[in-house]
Amino acid sequence: MRFTKLHSLGNDFLVICPNEELDFLRVGDFARRICDRHSGVGADGLLLVGLEDAARNEASFRIFNADGTEAEISGNGLRCAMACLVHQKRVSSSRVVFKATAGNRACEIIGSRGMVYEIRTDMGAPRFGPAELPFDDGQPHERLLDYPMSINQKIFEITCVSMGNPHCDIFVERFPARIEWHQIGREIESHPFFPNRTNVEFIRVLNRGEIEVLFWERGVGETLSSGTGSSAAAVAAILKGLTDRKVNVLTSLGSLTVEWQPEGEVFQTGPSEVIFEGEYPVQ
Q1: Pair 172, 203: CB distance under 8 Å
Q2: Could you check whether the bond before residue 271 is cis, i.e. omega within 30 degrees of 0?
Q3: What is the dihedral of CA 218, 222, 227, 229, to 10 degrees?
Q4: Contact at 8 Å (CB) between 69 and 28?
Q5: Peptide bond into 134 cis (omega under 30)
Q6: pLDDT digits (tens, 9 = 90+) for 202-221
Q7: What are the backbone angles phi and psi of residue 95, rounded to the nearest 5°?
């Protein structure tokens, strides 16, 4: 089975254009095998991308985490999908609308250099209601802003944002040791208040236009970056009045820009790079 490997700031994906072979696979199991970094190709996730309507530049989009679970959306994954379609010359337009579980998301190529593509993505409008995350502690909430959550006998003030998938944001003055934030991220990801689990971001505000973020992703663990996580972190910082509405998000391997429009839409601009193409045996 042919695949293309791409990454967006170190968050790496394997892209497969659906074909008849996949009809005979349990896709979750296949995702877990091919994403394994020791016995497979290795990636944070598997993307299934199909060009549904070439004339209208519409494509299907499904994402499976490295643990085989299916997610609703991925910002970095969308950019990788867009870069893959352009790289393989499957589309002639610089703009494609992807149909994901979380809704339609448009991507547009705004520049390229070799195998690296700069892409602007409409991430949709953030949601804050507990039912939309979902989050359930048995109490009514309009939104979860600085909610006190107890983890390992410590209280963490969390702010929750849905970008079509759930995010839990924690603001810190300095980043904890790696083993500590891994433990916190793991505990929060599977906390019973989050029935569908959650992604977790640790955020340092550097100034009114810049934040630095560490990412713990649901179904993956630590990732070097996250598109929806960057959006959620920026939205949370704006919501708390800590930054302006345009935020540069620093990740482990570079930065991207998040803009939260007054009318509610979030736009994100960042890179995606084609690494290589290959063949993986269907088992």
Answers
A1: yes
A2: no
A3: 60
A4: yes
A5: yes
A6: 999 999 999 999 999 999 99
A7: -130, 130
Residue ranges, CATH 3.10.310.10, the chain: 2-123+270-279, 130-264
Please give the single-letter amino acid code of residue 119: I
Distance CA 113, CA 99 (A): 27
Element containing residue 82 per DSSP (H, E): helix 75-87
- Which phi and psi (to 5°) does residue 79 adopt? -65, -40
Strands (DSSP E) contained in the chain are: 2-8, 11-16, 45-53, 58-65, 70-71, 95-100, 103-113, 116-124, 147-151, 154-162, 166-171, 199-207, 210-217, 221-223, 246-251, 254-260, 266-279
* Sign of the CA dihedral running 151, 196, 236, 268: positive
* Distance from C-alpha of 46 to C-alpha of 32, rounded to nearest angstrom: 9
| Range with the poorest average pLDDT among 21-25, 218-222, 254-258 | 21-25
Model's pTM, two decimal places? 0.96
Q: What is the CATH number of domain 2-123+270-279?
A: 3.10.310.10
Topology, domain 130-264: Diaminopimelate Epimerase; Chain A, domain 1 (3.10.310)
